[in-house]
Amino acid sequence: STAASAPSATDLCGAGQAWRYSPLASACYVLLGGGAPRNRSFAIASCSAISARLPETDSQAAIDGLRLTLNGMGFGGDELWLGGDNSTSTSDAVWIQRSGIAIANCNAAFATVCEKPVPKCDPSAISGYNPGTMTATNVTNNKAYYNLFNIGLESSLRCLPGFFRERDSPTATVATPTLSSSGQSVNTMLCGYNMSGSAYSPVVLQGFVEQCYPIRCATAQLKADIRIPNVEPYDSQITASHFNYSQRFYVTCNRGYVSYKNTSSITSPVECGQNYMDPTMGEWVPFDLNTCQAVKCPDISDYINTEQAVAYKADNRINQKQYSEFQSSSYPYYPNRVYIKCSTPGYFFDDRQFEKTIGCDLLNGSLIEGAWTGVLGTKLSLLKSAQCIEVSCDTDILIPKTAAGLAMLESLNYKSNAVISFDNGTVVNTNASSVNNQELMPYKTVLTFFCQDGMDTGTGAPIALCRSSGDWNLSSLPTCT
To answer: What's the CATH number for 215-282?
Structure first.
């Protein structure tokens, strides 16, 4: 007869003892003497007398199987002897139910559990099973075990990473085979056994096994319309028509770029991976092919006075890509230029410049480390100490502080009086010739001059406004005629 499930301990282990069969460990166990302690030599002899041995925990499945079997026995003790080679001439392994394997003196006394190994199914007997493309997966107590062909265990025959079945495609129309005569569904197997008298032999019970095919990535696209960015020519690296899953080739990054896997290297991999949406398809990794990433420069805040100034935009000096104030995380990378301004509106730097510019480049002598440099007239060494001051306009530009300035006012046919109106509401009446006594006028200051009686500029009274750009709205004062 064929036993397809719930193996009998009597069939597999024999009669005469209270054997318990563990499918995980592929072994039968029995507790001797009700768990009465005995030394190691006595324990070995006791197991040998019933054609058994001390338990051998040579795999995680064997450990878990032993633990589950002891729990099923209601084992109330703590320690029991294990088999295997002696650790020393005077000590050997012992199982501690609460913590696992330990070492104990051979003359100590512990409970004795005997183990009798049970033959397994031969995986080569599974029709259609290919261990090079598949793995047998069993789940016991919510834990996965792989390639256990033990009597009583049912396994799913799944594709290994890098392989797929036709039905895995989201557009597949593959019909599902019916249950096998043994009741197994597609891509599953159960290790059962046949009895002949009192003897048994393992037998494979299986459903139809679908083949697994390799996932592949075509290289033609990398030589044509889809190119890997920021790398040196690489066509010589990909002479094959395709790469299988997990196969890779290496490229050399352009200047200013390093590997996304290792920022200390300018050599970076491109690997054949699996498409997330369609697991039957290969996909190059990284998915956007940006295997070389831009070198990063140090934190910008180390180079500017963050209490007064802020980096507010950037651009790539090679491809002119722009980054707004909301993309500041993209600023500190090669080959970007970063623009810095005073954080308070109406202020500029103490050299009367509204903007400073720094560029991310490579540190001298390095291919992998970034460093900031001053560009477009910015001195990096002075940037940290630069102060922001209120925007103002230079009165000397309108009326030079020279005799020629006084003569100019007369030639413009202005009256001798003028009015200075400040943004805070203060109004100062003064002599026109004294307007330039204050060299710098604050932002929004208005200078009002008056034409001699009967004269006009043609555009109204001569008025100069200090603009937010730090210059006057007039390049020169108009003449009254």
So the answer is: 2.10.70
